[in-house]
Amino acid sequence: MDSFTDWRELICEAFLSLTPESDRRDGFTGAVTQWQFADLSLAQIDSRRQRVSRTDRDIDRAPRRGYYANLQLQGVSGMTQQGRSTVLRPGDLAVVDTAEPFAFDFPEAFLQLSLYLPGPLLESQLGQGVPTATRVDTGAGVGAAVRHALGALSRGDLAPQTAARLAAHTCGLIAVALEQPLAADIPAVRGDRLHRAALDDIDEHLTDDDLCAPVTAHRLGVSARLLYAVFAGQQRSYATEVRHRRLEHAWRQLQDPARSHLRVIDVAVSAGFADVTSFHRAFRRAYGRTPRQVREAAMGPAGGST
Question: Strand ranges (DSSP E) for the chain?
Answer without folding.
Answer: 19-21, 30-37, 40-47, 50-54, 66-74, 77-81, 84-88, 92-97, 102-106, 110-118, 136-137
